[in-house]
Design brief:
The complex is a heterodimer. Chain A has 16 helices and no strands. By secondary structure, chain A is mainly alpha-helical. In chain B, helix 4 runs antiparallel to helix 8 and helix 5 runs antiparallel to helix 15. The chains are: A mainly alpha, B mainly alpha.
């Protein structure tokens, strides 16, 4: 096995960084003209990419909690994804600065009726200082967990032994309840509170379901992209690893649909005035077509494709489905956030694209940058060999 | 790597101190130890237990008969509390069933080797729990002899069930679940029934086991079909783990009642179901493995893992409580907020605190390995979890109903002896069915444990750096 210290990626960092910076710059320029649109587009991009990093952190914790051995070979990549979280803490600043443009509860001067009532009632929770303090708490928790898990894993590359595995397992497991709570409240703060009237106890799980799925999609795409490079983890995955990742992609495609359907159906059938307006905007307008698109593109098509065993064992075809799912996930978040500023129906802005490319570009550049200087696989993990040999009956 | 003996190699892994199979018994020793309890004469203690449970079952039948003769007026139900003990007990039993399906289907797909030794036991528990659960929605109909009206069939009056009602959904959910659980369980039994046919001491037993073994000969073709069928059943069973309790949660969540209508119910009910199901497996397994002398096959490793599942699902249930409470405030609906305050300081507050202790605090013990490996703690905690889960359903169902929107329509609920009889009697009936299972069928899948032993041999050889027997063949 030739797992070497990774020193490459220079070109990718430069290119992704340049594209990302250009995207962010253009979004900022657009923000001068139309801050509402720019911030909403930026928020979609932000929660899309951040969700993947959080999904990776939760998956890493879950792997440690279940003492999973088969994914050890891809774990180094998985634990590097959440290292982008400090970058997202920086990328949160534009949202904090411009929040009054999209969060109507910041400045309720134009609000009337139920909206005003909701804003006043929720003031103890929805106010700017507490909102920022909460965001700080979320990022501190996420960054601490991500940094420690990866630090111990890297330390094991030189130290070896079982002790660091035990540490990672303890922290990975113990962090899960905190990650669940912070992720949920982050989704309430950053997405649900866009409409201060709306509430759904399921909302945190909804964001988690899509983000977790997107995290598997990213793992699959990265594995397919690095297949030819003997220094990278993708090269060392066998067909069974790919198959297992494909099964997870199938399972969480179904899980997302389950959560999305349950939330929709329960609110639709009860039809109570506090909850239903959120879905009325998203279904009884041209946005409804986007909802139907999601049912087909985020569930039906990938679900039936992924039932195929051959497809799940073929890295390239599986990666194609993964790309498709990332697109669908983006549309999902767009459908959740954008009706806030475009109630009448879908409205495509070039800022959607620049923000998406901007946040994604810098995140990718930062990710590859953080991969440099350490081994591409946990080379002295006691279960690496077993993982490389992975062959379920 | 050094070439130490295979058995030493497992002990070398300090992160896996407890084995999934104690020792490496050969096929013959495994068969003998696992069928022995079926052929041994009944002990006195066993007979006394059967008698006691039969008495409890009698109480259950009496309560059922009273319900049929008198009607549901025999219960403590009233308006507004139209659902109380009956539906609570239904949800409790069907939730308990979920552990078996999770172990047999989802853990199979997750390639968890430890499931092998406990799946038969857990699936049997599922079947009996579903059998118990199925009774309650039927008797709550008021005129249960018309239960078949819930089936969609083209009657001459052209009356169809209302598909917007959760009641027909339950019919489909439960009947599908019962069918798949039974088929899965029975299919897994076939190779072992053949073993019993070949080893039973009397002609009668050999004949009966032989009929149910369906002519199994253990040929390669049989095994090939069996493995494919088993995997397909696991695939079918997996969505059922989620869907059945999701439908049950819809029974409440599709309404507008504060305390019932909340979007998190589907996953939260599923987590609660698995939580109580694993607790029930622990409650039954801790004494059973000792009495049957199979502690080398169902080891501390199994109990330890099940305790972890109880912890994980218990945390999910606690997450559900947290979200419900936060949204009860955040949502700003005063009726919803009142429903939750009423849990903390209403007339039923005492049981709410018991629920919190049982479902939120008790599972936290299982963060500690020493607690997960202490049989007394495990046993007591597993019972407390199921007490807590029963109370949880009572809190959701009955306590929410006692105080809804208009104070003038509020009413307290007090159970009658029939209500208690239907609850405790069902536990005795369940226990009775379980004793019959322990008496007549192998508790541990013999064929699968043999296969597990071979896989462990293979793994040990790898860990010791020696090529295993048969290495290189797919």
């Amino acid at each position: 096995m030739t797992a070497t210290t990774f020193q490459g990626g220079r070109r990718l960092i430069t290119m992704a960084g340049a594209v990302g910076a250009a995207g962010l710059g253009l979004t900022a320029l657009g923000g001068l003209a139309d801050p509402r649109q720019a911030l909403a587009s930026y928020l979609v991009a932000f929660v899309f990419w951040l969700g993947i990093a959080l999904g990776a952190l939760i998956l890493l914790g879950a792997f440690h909690a279940s003492k999973a051995r088969w994914p050890v070979v891809l774990r180094r990549f998985l634990e590097t994804i959440p290292l982008t979280l400090p970058l997202f803490a920086v990328l949160f600043i534009p949202l904090a600065l411009g929040m009054r443009h999209i969060f109507s509860w910041v400045d309720p001067s134009g609000a009337t009726g139920e909206l005003l009532h909701a804003i006043e009632y929720k003031r103890p929770y929805l106010n700017v200082p507490f909102f920022l303090v909460r965001a700080a708490i979320y990022f501190v928790v996420w960054i601490a967990v991500a940094t420690l898990l990866r630090r111990w894993s890297v330390r094991q590359d030189t130290e070896g032994g079982h002790r660091l595995t035990a540490w990672q397992r303890r922290l990975g497991t113990g962090a899960l309840p905190f990650l669940a709570l912070t992720l949920s409240f982050a989704s309430f703060d950053w997405m649900m509170s866009l409409d201060p009237r709306f509430y759904s106890t399921m909302f945190g799980i909804y964001w988690f379901a899509g983000s977790f799925l997107a995290c598997f999609a990213v793992l699959i795409i990265a594995a397919a992209a690095t297949r030819a490079d003997p220094g990278q983890f993708g090269h060392h995955l066998n067909a069974d690893h790919v198959h297992s990742l494909g099964k997870f992609l199938l399972a969480f495609t179904a899980f997302w649909a389950y959560i999305a359907f349950s939330q929709f159906m329960l609110i639709w059938i009860a039809n109570i005035p506090e909850e239903i307006p959120w879905y009325v905007v998203r279904t009884d307008s041209p946005w409804g077509r986007v909802g139907i698109f999601l049912a087909v593109a985020h569930f039906a098509i990938p679900f039936f494709l992924l039932l195929s065993r051959d497809l799940k064992r073929n890295p390239r075809r599986l990666a194609a489905v993964a790309v498709w799912l990332l697109v669908a996930h983006f549309v999902d978040l767009h459908w959740v956030i954008m009706p806030r500023i475009h109630e009448a129906g879908p409205h495509f802005s070039w800022l959607d694209l620049t923000a998406f490319v901007g946040v994604g570009g810098v995140a990718l550049a930062f990710l590859v940058f953080r991969m440099r200087g350490v081994a591409t696989m946990p080379v002295r993990d006691p279960y690496l060999e077993e993982s490389l040999r992975y062959q379920p009956q | 790597m050094s070439s130490k003996p295979a058995t030493a190699a497992i002990a070398l892994d300090p992160l896996e101190p407890v084995p999934v199979l104690v020792g490496r018994p050969d096929d013959r020793a495994l068969t003998e130890s696992l069928v022995k309890p079926l052929y041994a004469p009944m002990t006195r203690g066993w007979k006394m237990l059967v008698t006691a449970l039969a008495a409890g079952m009698g109480f259950w039948l009496l309560s059922l008969a009273t319900t049929l003769v008198v009607g549901i007026g025999a219960w403590g139900n009233n308006i507004p509390v139209a659902w109380a003990f009956d539906i609570t007990t239904f949800v409790w039993w069907i939730g308990i069933g979920h552990a078996g399906t999770l172990i047999s289907a989802i853990l199979l797909l997750f390639q968890q080797k430890w499931r092998t030794s406990i799946n038969r036991f857990a699936e049997a528990m599922t079947l009996f729990a579903v059998a118990m659960a199925g009774v309650y929605p039927i008797i709550h109909l008021g005129r249960p002899w018309f239960f078949w009206w819930l089936m969609p069939y083209p009657s001459t009056t052209q009356l169809w069930p209302n598909f917007k009602s959760a009641l027909p959904w339950d019919v489909f959910a439960i009947s599908t679940y019962a069918t798949v659980s039974f088929l899965f369980w029975f299919m897994g039994l076939i190779p072992d029934l053949a073993t019993l046919r070949d080893t039973a001491p009397t002609r009668l037993k050999r004949t009966i086991y032989g009929i149910f073994a369906f002519g199994w000969r253990g040929s390669a073709r049989h095994w090939q079909h069996y493995r494919i069928g088993y995997l397909l059943m696991a695939g079918l069973g997996t969505p059922l783990v989620v869907s059945v309790h999701t439908i049950v949660s819809f029974d409440f969540a599709i309404s507008q009642l504060p305390g019932w209508h909340t979007t998190i119910f589907p996953p939260y009910f599923v987590a609660g179901a698995i939580f109580s199901g694993f607790a029930m497996v622990l409650t039954l397994m801790i004494p059973a493995r000792k009495v049957l002398g199979i502690e080398h096959v169902i080891t501390m490793k199994h109990l330890d893992n099940m305790a972890k599942v109880v912890l994980a699902t218990g945390l999910m249930v606690s997450y559900g409580y947290a979200m419900e409470h936060f949204m009860a405030w955040y949502g700003g609906n005063k009726y919803e907020a009142f429903a939750f305050l009423n849990r903390w300081n209403g007339p039923y507050a005492a049981i709410w605190y018991v629920q919190l202790v049982c479902n939120v605090l008790v599972p936290q013990l299982f963060w500690f390995p020493s607690m997960r490996r202490n049989l007394v703690v495990l046993f007591v905690a597993s019972i407390l979890v199921n007490v807590g889960m029963w109370i949880e359903r009572f809190t959701i169902i009955a306590v929410s109903l006692t105080r809804d929107f208009i104070p003038s329509s509020w009413a307290m609920y007090t159970p009658t002896w029939v209500d208690w009889g239907l609850l405790f009697g069902s536990m005795c009936t369940f226990g009775m069915l379980f004793l019959l299972f322990l008496r007549f069928l192998p508790v541990v899948p013999i064929a699968e444990v043999k296969e597990l032993r071979r896989e462990l041999d293979h793994h040990d050889a790898h860990a010791a750096g020696q090529p295993a027997h048969g290495e290189g063949t797919p």
